[in-house]
Specification:
The complex is a heterodimer of chains A (428) and B (464).
Chain A: E1 2-9, H1 13-25, E2 31-34, H2 47-51, H3 65-70, E3 73-76, E4 81-85, E5 90-93, E6 98-106, E7 110-112, H4 131-146, E8 154-158, H5 162-174, E9 177-182, H6 194-206, E10 210-213, E11 217-223, E12 226-231, E13 236-239, E14 241-244, E15 248-250, E16 279-281, H7 302-317, E17 331-336, E18 339-345, E19 356-362, E20 369-375, E21 378-385, H8 391-399, H9 408-413, H10 415-427
Helix pairs in contact in A: 1-7
Chain B: E1 6-9, H1 19-28, E2 40-44, E3 49-53, H2 62-66, E4 72-74, E5 80-82, H3 92-96, E6 102-105, E7 110-113, H4 126-130, E8 136-139, H5 142-149, H6 167-178, E9 182-185, H7 190-193, E10 209-210, H8 217-230, E11 236-242, H9 243-248, H10 251-260, E12 265-270, H11 310-315, E13 321-326, H12 330-343, E14 349-354, H13 368-377, E15 384-387, E16 391-394, H14 404-408, H15 419-441
Parallel strand pairs in B: 9-10, 9-11, 11-12, 12-14, 13-14
Antiparallel strand pairs in B: 1-8, 2-3, 4-5, 6-7, 13-15, 15-16
Classes of the chains: A alpha/beta (428), B alpha/beta (464).
Chain lengths: 428, 464
Amino acid sequence: MEQFDYVVLGASHAGLEALRAIRAHDADGSIAVLDREARLPVSPTVLPYVVSGKCAEDRIALRERSWFDAQRVDYRQQAAAAALDAARSRLRLADGREIGYGKLLLATGAAPALPPIEGLSDVRFHVLRTLADALALRDAANEVASEAGRSAGRAVVLGAGLVGMHAAENLVRAGARVTIVEMRGQVLPGYFDATAAARIEAVFRDKGVEVLTGRRVKQVARRGEDCTVLLDGGDAREAELLLVAAGVRPEVSYLSGSGVAVERGIVVDEFMRTAAANVWAAGDVVQTPSFFGDGTPAGGILPDAVEQGRTAGMSMAGDPALRPYPGGVSLNTYGFFGRRALSVGRDAPAQAGPEWDVLVRDGEGAEGYLKLVLREGRLQGIFGVDVLFDPGIMWELILRRVEIDARRQALLENPQDTARALMSGLWR
Amino acid sequence: MSATPTIAFDATRCDGCGECMSACASAKSTDGSSAQSRIRIVRDEESGSWGIAQCRQCGDPRCASVCPAAALAKGDDGIVAWDAERCVNCLICTAGCTFGGIAFSPAEGHVVKCDQCSDQHAGAPQCVSACARGALRYVTAANVYNRWGELEDLFVPGLGGCQGCNTELIMRHTLRRVGPNTVLATPPGCIPGMGSVGYNGMLGCKVPVFHPLLTNTASMLTGIRRQHKRKGRNVTALALAGDGGAGDVGFQSLSGAAERGEQILFVCVDNEGYMNTGAQRSGSTTYGAWTATTPIGDSARGKAQDAKNLPLLMMWHGCEYVATASTAFMEDFYAKLEAALEASERGFAYLHLYSPCTSGWRFPSASNIEVARTAVETNFAVLWEYRREQGLTLSRDIDDPLPVTDYLKLLGKFRHLDAAQIAHIERHVAEQAQVLRELAAMQPCEGRQVVGRQSDLMAVDLDQ
C-alpha cells in the first residue's frame, strides 16, 4: 500500500492553496494530490467563459503538470475516492487501490443540486460544474440559437444564482430566447439586496430575457428532443435547452461510515479539522460557518475556499503562523452585459434594531447604486451596481471589525478612495 | 522563491502632490489620464495623512490564488504579472487583494496593476523617479539577500540571542560573506553569550573560533594572522566584538593593532554598554542614558558624560578602512563589508555596527530595525566610510535629519530625560554631524592623505 505524509483530495482552489501552504512550511514531506478529473485542474468559476467562447478550453488550467513536479507533489488524475477509513488512516479509491496518509485534506468540492421536480429525470437537461458540462452547454447553446431558417429556440434556466445568470447571459448573447425561473423573490438572492437585484434584473429584461421570480417549476415533461416546463401558475414554456442551476450540494458520498461528521457539508472547526483525527476539509465540500455567526449564507465563494485551503494546509503542516479561519463572508464580483455589480458581507435584517445603519446612494447611470450596512459603527456589508470599490479591502474592514462611523459619508461618496485611505493607515 | 525589489512608501514624506500618478499615467495609460494610474495616493481626512494603493507584488499573491483563469502569476522577476489573454474579467482578483493593488479600469475595460515598469523602464519605476520628496523608494535590497543566500551560513542554527536582537543578523551575514577561510575571535560579550564559541564542547560555528580576553582580542588575532601568513596561508583574521571589548577594555590592543596596520577585519557590534552582564554603562553609552550603573534617582539622571566616538577614533589611526553601518541599511552594510574585507588584505579594517539592544535599551523586540533606522535618520548614528586614499565620505545625506527626539522617544532608557538633557543630546548630535560634514568636505591633496599617516610610514614587516 502506498503511503504519503499528506494526501489532498481534489485539485481545485482549496486543494491547490492547501498544497501551497503545506509546501511553504514542510519542504520535504511526501504529498499526493488525487483528482478525479481526467484533465488538469479547472476552476468551476471559469466555466461560464468557456460556454461563452471567451476562454479556449486548453487555456484555462489552474496549474500545469510542471508546477506539481516543481512542488515535488505526486499529482494523479482519475483518482476518485470511494471510501475513507479514518481509524486506519486509509483511503480506498474507486479502482480498489488503497492509499495510506499521515494527514488528509478533503477538498472534493460540490456537485450540482437537483431540485425535486417531477419528471426531471426523464428529460435532457444541462448543469454547469465541470468542463465537460461547459462544453456540452456551449454546443447546445449554439444549436438552440443558430439554426438557419428558423427563429431562435428557447432556453429555460432554473435558478437565478451566479451560475444561472451567467449562463442566461451567454445564451442571450448566443442568440437564444431565454427564460429564468427563480423561486425566491429576486435574482441573485443571498448575494445582492433587492434594489441591486432589481437593477440587474432590469438589464436582463432590456436584453429580452424573461425573468420569473417568486415562481416554481411544478413539472417538466419530455416533448421529443425538447421539454415542456410547467410553472406553478399553470403556464408553461417549451424549452429546447433546459439548464438546472439550483445550487450545489457537497461531494461527500465517499464519507459514509468514516466518522467524518456531515451536515449541510462537512463539519469543521476553526482550523478546518473534521470530526475524524488527521482529516481536514476545505472549500465547497465544507459547511462553512458564517463570520457573522448568524444565518447569513456562507460558503461557495471562491476567495473563501482559498482561505479555507490555506488554513487547512497550514494546520496540517503545523505552521506556527496559523490563524483560525474567521468564518465565511459572502463576497461577489459579478459582471453582466459589460456592467459590474459587487457585494461584500451581509444586508441588515428585516427587523433591524437601532444598532443598524443603512446608507444608500441610488443615482442613475454613472452614479450607480451603492448601499452600506453598518452595525455599531462597523461595516457589515457593501453592495454596489456600477460603482467601483475594492472588495478585498472591504472584506478586510469587515473581518477586522474596523470602526468606520466617522467615515460613513465619505465611504458612501467615494468608497474606493476612502477605504484605500483607511487601509493605508491600518495595514499598509 | 527569491526575494525581489519592491516600491516602498513613506507616508510622512508624502504631500499628496500626485506627480507619481501623473508619471504612472503617462507611462501606462491609454489616454494619458491620471485616472488610469496604477498607483493611487489617497487622503485620509480623519487622520490627515496620505495613503497609497499600489500592488505590493506579494510573495504569496492572493490575487493569483483566487484567479479562476490562471491569469495572474508571480514571475521570477518578482512581478505579479497579468495575462490579458487568459483574463476573463471576473474581478475576483480585486476581492483577493486587501491593498487595492489590482482594480478594474473602466477606461481600459479590464483590471490593471503595477508591474514596476518592468516592460519599458525596468529598474526605474516612473512613479519613484517622479517623487521629489523621497516618499517613494525603489528598494532593491532584496538582490543582496539573494546573493548572500547562496553563501553558506557558518554559524550553527539556534544562536541564543535576546528576542529581537539584530546581532544574530550581523553575525550570520558577516561570516557568510567573509567565508570559511577565517579564524574568528569573539571576546566576552553578547556574541559568545549567544553561542558563537559553542556549548558543552561543541563549536558554535563552522570556522575555528576562540574566546580571547576582553583586553587582548586584537593582539591574539595579530599573532594568528602573522603565523598563518608565515606558513603561506591567506586566512582572514576576524573579530566580532562588542563596544566594551573594542573601545573600552579592549582598546589598548585594538589601538595597537590598528596603529601597526595589522591585517585584521575588526567588527564592533555597538550596543552602547555592557549589555551581556546586565546593562552597565560603557564609553559608548549616550549621555543621559539609563544603565544599571547610571541609574535614575533624586540626583542621578543617567550617564553624565557623552559617548566617545569610537569609529572616528579608529579613523584617526589611519586604518586602511573604517566605516559605520546599520542593519536598517543592509545594502550599505554589505557594500562596506565587501570593502572592509578587501582592505583587511592590506591592513587594518574596522567596521562599526549600530546594534540597538532590545532588553538593555528598553524597547519592544519587534522594533529593532525601526530603532536602527531612526537612529540613522535623526543623525544620531551617521553612516560614513573612510578609505586611506580617499578620506571620509558620508554614505547618505545628513542635511535634513528627523528630530533627534523622534529617536529618543522610542527608547525606555531615555524616558526620564528633561528638557536640558534633550537639548544637550541634540547639541551633541548636531556637533558630531558637523564634524563629519567638514571631514567629508575635505578633499585629499596629491601625495597626502586627508587624515592619518603617510602610507610609507607603514613599516610592519609581517614576515619577521
